[in-house]
Design brief:
Blueprint lengths: L2 E3 L2 E3 L6 E2 L2 H14 L4 H4 L6
Antiparallel strand pairs: 1-2, 2-3
Length: 48
């Protein structure tokens, strides 16, 4: 489940944070389905 963390949205599967909730949801869906992260999606992650 995507969580709101410090104004960003965190992927419940891998813990990466995104400024956009929909991107975090895509990340979580990909991570869960493939048991790995997508380079196309994680390039959109925010730092910190």
């Amino acid at each position: 489940m995507v969580k709101s963390a410090s104004g960003n949205f965190e992927c419940g599967a891998c813990g990466l944070r995104y400024a956009d909730e929909k991107i975090a949801e895509k990340c979580e869906a990909f991570c869960t389905e493939h048991n790995a992260c997508s380079l196309e999606i994680i390039r959109l992650a925010v730092k910190g």
